[in-house]
Amino acid sequence: MIRKFFLFLILLLFSLASDAQSFFVPSDTLIKSRFNTALGFAAVSYTSFSIGLYRTWYSKYDKEAFHLFNDMGEWNQMDKAGHAHTAYLQGVLCYKGARWTGLDQKSSILTGIICGTLFQSTIEVMDGFSSKWGFSLGDMGANLVGTGLFAAQQYYWDDQKISLKISSIPIAHPNATIYSSNGKGETSLLSRAQDLYGTSWLERSLKDYNAQTYWASVNVHSFLPKGNNWPKWLNVALGYGAENMYGGFSNNWVENGNDFSADNILYPRYRQFYLGFDVDLPKLNPKSPFLKTICSVFNIFKIPSPALEINTEGQIKFHLFR
After folding, report:
1. Per-position pLDDT tens, the chain of length 322
2. Which one of 4, 28, 258, 262 is CB 3.0 to 4.6 Å from 251, fit for a cystine?
3. Residue 29 CB: number of other CB atoms within 10 A?
4. 189 with 295, same domain?
């Protein structure tokens, strides 16, 4: 279903591009037809997102009174990086959508803040009424960091000199047998990972924190004096990742009534810090308004490139692509 949706979206964009390049050009003055289109699209997207999320996810779990949940120690804070990235992305895209309709700068920034916060806050509120989770102040704080980073840069610089991006390279999880504490059951980290993160390439890319890296992609050219020779499109990227995570807080879990745990010596949970290069796609400055739109949308992904890793295990590694 997700693949079909993206295929339809791509075909729609190409169809629009072939019909009228001017469709993708932002307006200097408010165009009511564009504004109504954007407003309707946002309303339908938000309603569909909220109902779909509740039916496919939250309806499966028991409900209780609104409550808080402290998950700051989960997933080595990779989930918090994900919240900041998503909120930042929503803020940027909604801002650009507002500018496309012809709204002025301040109104467009406010639109990005409201939309980014609203979408993410809806998830937190649903968590707050779920017996399995709760409203996470940490998640909400990460959301505000993401929208705040977008808004501050747009307000003071009228540019996104530091972009939050993601890369995800699915990894091969170990298939060695792990026995339960009572010796009556057996499983593997591969089986555990499939239960947590799914089996398809798309599921693993979206859900496996071990495979994901979150980046702060810095446009060096924009921070240097005018007339510098640094390529406008070449960014320096600082990344954060984590490895060997097979549970939120620890690598202990229950499966079919048996207690399992991963050997902390063989599979230590650790953090990774990266230094690499990236491409700021909008700074390639394509002439086509359609290609400019495509560059803006896909700029949420870091372009695979050589990177240096330093991790909390005291290791230094070089990656040809990360």
Report:
1. 444 444 444 444 444 443 444 667 788 899 999 888 888 888 888 898 889 888 877 888 899 999 999 999 999 999 999 999 999 999 999 999 999 999 999 999 999 999 989 989 999 999 999 998 999 999 999 999 999 999 999 999 999 999 999 999 889 999 999 999 999 999 999 999 999 999 988 888 888 999 999 999 999 999 999 999 999 999 999 999 999 999 999 999 999 999 999 999 999 999 999 999 999 999 998 888 888 888 888 999 999 999 999 999 999 999 998 9
2. 262
3. 8
4. yes
| Burial of 125 per CB tally in 10 Å (0-12, 13-18, 19+) | middle
What are the CA-CA distances from residue 262 to residues 10, 190, 272, 296, 300 (Å)? 42, 11, 20, 41, 34
The structure tokens listed for 4 are: 């079909």
**Paired residues of 275 in beta bridges:** 238, 308
Give me the domain span that covers residue 208: 161-322
Q: Which of 108, 129, 158 is the last residue of a domain?
A: 158
Q: Quick check: 41 and 34 in contact, CB under 8 A?
A: no
Q: With residue 311 as reference, give the H or E element that holds it.
A: strand 307-311
Count of the separate structural domains present in the chain: 2
Say whether 318 sits in a helix, a strand or coil.
strand
Residues 80 and 190 in one domain: no
Amino acid letter, 130: S
User: Which are the contacts of 13, defined by CB distance < 8 A and separation ≥ 6?
Assistant: 290, 293, 294
User: Would 28 be classed as within a structural domain?
Assistant: no
> Are 196 and 257 members of one domain?
yes
Q: Does a structural domain hold residue 298?
A: yes
The residue among 102, 129, 158 that closes a domain is 158
